[in-house]
Structure formats: structure tokens, C-alpha cells
Specification:
By secondary structure, this protein is of the alpha/beta class. It folds into 2 domains: 98 residues, Elongation Factor Tu (Ef-tu), domain 3; 177 residues, Nucleotide-binding domain of ferredoxin-NADP reductase (FNR) module (Rossmann fold). It has 9 helices and 18 strands. Strands 13-12-9-8-14-15-18 form a 7-stranded mixed sheet, with helices on both faces. A 6-stranded antiparallel β-barrel has the order 2-3-6-5-4-7. The N terminus is likely disordered.
Length: 304
């Protein structure tokens, strides 16, 4: 038997923490592959956002359907959030045409974010394509948190990365020295990071991001793995591979799912996924029950 939760639960759960803001566009940057970053002045959202949460954006007044976009950074003091997206469909193409000074209706922050365990401060963050933003947010959060967190970020893309590649001065002794490219922001934050792709990008590991993750995990001893936790966001096939990798190395893993959404606040139940729970299989809404879930619950490994 598969249980479906009442559709109203998400709305009630987020009452008092969900905001509708008339956000001003304060910066836009374009990257190859029809990718864009956008900074919005959204003080309430910025004050409550956590790594893994997202916003529901009205791309244009003429388009009634909003688009869910992950938050890549948030500054509660300055009151801004950063979004990163790739054009897919009419809505995001329209959004890409918006300019600095214009305003967008934004609902957020929405969803359950990542919950790193204090007992596992060696954190492996894996981002694929448009799954990169939550990993950047989580890396910055951990780097600024007390307690000696050790984030390592690995990112993969088959189109040009949505940032200028930079040679890292942060050593990764488990990799050949020619695998040196990183994201400038993470380098500034002093977070070790490396990139993977099957495309021929300078300084980038040739392979999938999960291949790069395996290379690191296989170098860790039992004591190190006991302090490690994996976090990932990206296409479904990638997340399935990450879940299998986490199972192989007996490391807990949290994944942020990407799903099409209509209301994004739990009312329509249009983004449900099958999740294994202690009470049996259940249909959970990605928007409010997630988007972050335990990887083993969403992608159970055969024979586990």
C-alpha cells in the first residue's frame, strides 16, 4: 500500500516562514550554454533561506505559471539572493530577458534544506549542471559555521560551467596536478573544489562527477569514512549513481531532487515522488516534504 499525505500539510507547515516579495533585479550575468545568474533584492527570503531551499519565480506578468529555482547564495544583512538557471522553455527564456531594475514576484524560501550531521564534518558536496547552486550555498554555509567543517565540492557539467574557470591554489593531493580548475567563488571562500566533464575543458577531470567522487572516497580510510557525509543535487540519473556510491562506501547521503512544480507550496501534489519510510512506501511532495531527502529512501539499492 502506498500512502499519499494530505495536500494541505505543506501550506500549514510553512505558514509564517513563506514570503511573497516584489523583488528587484540588481545584477544579471550571462554564461555560455544559455545559463544565467541573477541577484534579487528579497530581504525576507534572504533572511530565512537555508542551503537546499528554493524560490518560485514569476518570470513575466504575462506568464501565470511560476518556475522553481534553487537559491545559490543568500545575504541576510544585504537582503539579496542569487539564482542560477539554464534556459529550458518559454518561461526561463523570458526570465533571461529581464534586466537590472525590473521587478519579479518571488515566493520563498520553500522546502526542507540539507541537515548536515555534527558527527560527520567531512562533507562531500556533488553538484551536476543546474544542481550546482545548492552545493555552493551549502559549502558557503559550512565554511562560515563553527566546528571545523571540511567541505569538498565536486561539480560536473557537459556544457561550459556557469562561471570562469580558475586554477586552484588549494591542493588536492588525491588528484593529478593537471586537474586544477575550480569555481572562483569557492576559491575565494577557501573551499577545495574540482570539476568533472566528458567535454574537453582545461584543468577539468575527464569523466562523470561520480567518477571524481569515487576517486576521493576510495582514498579515505575507515576512520575518515566514518566522519563523512555526502550531499548531492543534479539530474535523476546522477543522483541514482550517487546513492549507489554512498551505499558502496557505507556513507550517509542526502539528495536534493529536481521536479516540475505547479504550486510549489504543497497544495497540488503535482511533484510527488515515491519514498521509502519506516511505515512503508509513501508519496512525498518534493516542494514541501523535500526537496532534500535521504538518498537511500528515494533511490534504494537492490539487495540493500
Amino acid at each position: 500500500m502506498i500512502v499519499t499525505e494530505p495536500a494541505t500539510g505543506g501550506v500549514h507547515r510553512h505558514r509564517g516562514t513563506l514570503f511573497v516579495e516584489d523583488a528587484e533585479i540588481i545584477a544579471v550575468s550571462a554564461f555560455p550554454g544559455e545559463q544565467f545568474s541573477m541577484r534579487l533584492s528579497a530581504p525576507q527570503c534572504a533572511s530565512h533561506a537555508v542551503a537546499g531551499s528554493f524560490v518560485h519565480v514569476r518570470c513575466d506578468p504575462a506568464l501565470p505559471m511560476r518556475r522553481p529555482l534553487s537559491i545559490m547564495r543568500a545575504d541576510p544583512q544585504a537582503g539579496w539572493i542569487d539564482l542560477l538557471y539554464k534556459i529550458v522553455g518559454k518561461g526561463l527564456r523570458t526570465l533571461a530577458g529581464r534586466t537590472v531594475g525590473e521587478r519579479l514576484s518571488v515566493i520563498g524560501p520553500i522546502g526542507r534544506g540539507f541537515a548536515p550531521s555534527p558527527q560527520r564534518r567531512r562533507t562531500l558536496l556533488l553538484g551536476g549542471g543546474v544542481g550546482i547552486p545548492p552545493m555552493v550555498f551549502l559549502a558557503e554555509t559550512l565554511q562560515h559555521s563553527p566546528g571545523g567543517w571540511q567541505p569538498l565540492v565536486l561539480m560536473g557539467s557537459e556544457i561550459p560551467f556557469p562561471f570562469e574557470l580558475q586554477d586552484s591554489a588549494i591542493a588536492c593531493a588525491w588528484l593529478p596536478p593537471e586537474v586544477s580548475s575550480t569555481m572562483p567563488l569557492l576559491e575565494t571562500l577557501q573551499v577545495p573544489a574540482r570539476l568533472a566533464s566528458l567535454s574537453d575543458f582545461a584543468g577539468v577531470y575527464r569523466g562523470y562527477v561520480t567518477d571524481l567522487a569515487r576517486a576521493w572516497l576510495s582514498r579515505q580510510d575507515r576512520a575518515a569514512l566514518a566522519q563523512t557525509e555526502i550531499f548531492a543535487c543534479g539530474p535523476t540519473a546522477m543522483l541514482q549513481a550517487v546513492a549507489a556510491l554512498a551505499h558502496e562506501f557505507a556513507v550517509p547521503c542526502q539528495v536534493s531532487l529536481e521536479e516540475f512544480m505547479a504550486c510549489a507550496v504543497g497544495g497540488c501534489a503535482g511533484c510527488t515522488v515515491l519514498v521509502q519510510t519506516a511505515a512503508g512506501p509513501a508519496m512525498k511532495r518534493v516542494c514541501v516534504d523535500g526537496p532534500v531527502f535521504d538518498a537511500a529512501a528515494v533511490f534504494p539499492v537492490a539487495g540493500a
